[in-house]
Specification:
Blueprint (H helix, E strand, L loop, with lengths): L1 H73 L11 H10 L16 E16 L4 E13 L16 E4 L8 E3 L2 E4 L8 E4 L4 E4 L2 E7 L11 E10 L7 E10 L8 E8 L8 E10 L2 H20 L9 H23 L9 H27 L9 H10 L10 H33 L1
Parallel strand pairs: 1-10
Antiparallel strand pairs: 1-2, 2-7, 2-8, 3-6, 4-9, 5-8, 6-7, 9-12, 11-12
Amino acid sequence: MLLMLISMMQSSQKRSPLVHSTVTSSSLALTNQNNAAAVKRSSSKLTNHRENIIKFWSVGSMLFGICLLVLASLVPVRPMATLDDPEARLYENLSARFNTLKPPRPNASIPVDVQVAVHIDHIYQLDIKHQILVISGWIRMTWRDESLQWNPSDYGNVDLVVIPSVLVWSPDVFLAEQLESTIFRKKNFNVILLPNGTIFCDPGGEMTLNCPLNLRQFPFDTQHCNISIITWNSPPNQVLLRPVGVYDDLKEPNDDLDIVDFVMSAETNLNSWGTFEVKLRRKSLYHILNVLLPIVSLSILNLMVFRLPPGCGEAVTCSVSIVVAFSVWLLMLSSSMPSTSKNLPLITIYVTASILVSVISTIVVILTIHIYDNSESDPIPAWLTRLCVSLRSNKTNETLTWKETASAIFTCSFLISLTFWLLFTIIIVILFAIG
């Protein structure tokens, strides 16, 4: 029995590895099946999650689109001008007939008649030194384009339209006297179109013009400045400028100038050119108080030098001071006047003559003081004695001293200077009066 038990135990020990290997194989298979099931389950969950995302995105897109449509329906929309609007139809019809290149004339033998009128609304400055006139205003040009006509009754009685100037033909003009001007440089202004095809163009701005001045009667002068409008690249057989009016629309008067007259030139327009003349008169009160009166006062003071005692040394100081004062006035006038020898101002000539008289007076004063200090033992020349005796009220005593001679020379110089000053002043006044 014991032997049988031992043999059975040994046989069981021999079979145990096989059983163990069988059990191990079964567990591995079971594990693989579990893993496959887990992968299948996770794949199924991922597929379900993806389908949910797609459904959510589709529903969200639909809701977003519906919201946009609702908001769009709530926003008020401004209705656009349609062809039922008469003015819109008019602009639509005119835009097809706009032509910026061809001059609006019926045939090649008839030029475009451009009527020109000038308006001045401000005078800024009349520069005497550089002979420049600075003004502002505008130039109205009027012409007709028969291709742009319409019947107002067909377009809701619209009798005027405003369009940019770049859409229609306009004359190529400029100012002949302009030094600097913006009046024709701007191309973004508007023009007015009437039903009969008439076009109004009003370019405006500041104009700096060359104006040759005649300052002979300064400060009582009247100046004549021209405003000439000329076609640039258009011959007379294409464009004919015709001046029709001038207007003084000054918003405020100038402090130094008044417009006396503003006229059109009487010249014919053979060269397609329109000329307007502006007459400006200077307000002279300021110049009388600050220029004329000081100069005349210095001239009178120059005469009074010879009323001082002959031996007074201050006479030389006074005379030299007057020469310096006249020189300063001449320098001030020269700095404000144009550098030209044509039509010299009479006031400049007057100051220059006064300087010469002052210089001569200074020389006479110096010589007279020298004579006054001569010794009485020195003889007096016979011609000087006769001259001095003729100026004395008591001519019975013909004996003179050097001091009496100096006094007589002062008296003679005063009379001569007074006579010259009166004659020269009268001549200048007459020249001012006759122009």
